[in-house]
Structure formats: C-alpha cells, structure tokens
Amino acid sequence: QVQLVESGGGSVQSGGSLRLSCAASGYTYSTYCMGWFRQAPGKEREGVATIDRYGRTIYADSVKGRFTISQDNAKNTLYLEMNSLKPEETAMYYCAAGVKYSLSLRHADFGYWGQGTQVTVSS
C-alpha cells in the first residue's frame, strides 16, 4: 500500500502563487508515476500534471507555462508549483500515484490517492 499526504493549500489572490507538497510512504517502490488532480464542486476530477520515475512530465493545456511538477526522490515528496493562479482554479487538489509505466492524466490510471488540500483563488 501507498499513503499520500498533501499540504500547502490555502487562500490566495488572483495572480498569486502556491506550492503544494505530497509526502509518500509505504510500498513506493511499486509506483511508476505520480500526479496532481483537482476537483471543484459539481465538476469532474481533472488531471493537472503528472511525472514519472525518469522525470518526464505532462501537463494539462490550461496550466502549461504556469505550473511546474517536480519530485524529490530522496524525500519521497512530490511538489506542484502554481503561479499566476486564476479564480476558476479554485478546487480541492489531490495527489495521486499509479503503477502504469506510461504517463497519464486520467484519474482512472491512478490507484492511490491523498485526502486533498483546498486551494481558493479570490478575484
């Protein structure tokens, strides 16, 4: 099993920045990729960014150039740097891990999930 714990959420003004962190523990050797997803009330869960063991990344088109996903393997920690935040990006942000060998932004491809951290962007 893999346990994931997110932190770093909060409230920020439009155009502001936040950095989210995700601490992973347990059988992390079995995971191939990790990613960030977000979900607003009444909306579907959306893939934001994913990174694999080799550092390869994919991003949702809406966040390219503003968000950066990274990992510290020594600390088993995943990060998401978010810049120029927009009010429509207010959501619960989730950390996820999967065992598939290919990169993906589909939530069904990830089997482990954290509890989420709330991000609120005010206009």
Structure characterization notes:
- The chain is an all-beta fold and 123 residues long.
- It contains no helices and eleven strands.
- The strands form two sheets. Strands 2, 4, 5, 6, 9, 10 and 11 form a seven-stranded mixed beta sheet that branches. A four-stranded antiparallel beta sheet has the order 1-3-8-7, with no helix packed on it.
Q: Any descriptors?
A:
123 residues; mainly beta; 7-stranded mixed beta sheet; 4-stranded antiparallel beta sheet
Short description:
The protein is an all-beta fold and 123 residues long. The chain has no helices and eleven strands.
How are the elements arranged and paired?
Elements: E1 2-7, E2 10-13, E3 18-26, E4 33-39, E5 46-52, E6 57-59, E7 67-72, E8 77-82, E9 91-98, E10 112-113, E11 117-122
Parallel strand pairs: 2-11
Antiparallel strand pairs: 1-3, 3-8, 4-5, 4-9, 5-6, 7-8, 9-10, 9-11
Query: Helicity level, as a percent range?
Result: under 10%
User: Please, how many helices?
Assistant: 0
Broad structural category: mainly beta
Mean pLDDT: 95
Q: In whole angstroms, how far apart are the ends? A: 40 Å
Strand segment count: 11
Low-confidence stretches: none
- What's the alpha carbon Rg, rounded to whole Å? 13 Å
Largest sheet: 7 strands, mixed
Secondary-structure element sequence?
EEEEEEEEEEE
**Hey, roughly how much beta strand do the residues contain?**
over 45%
Shape: globular
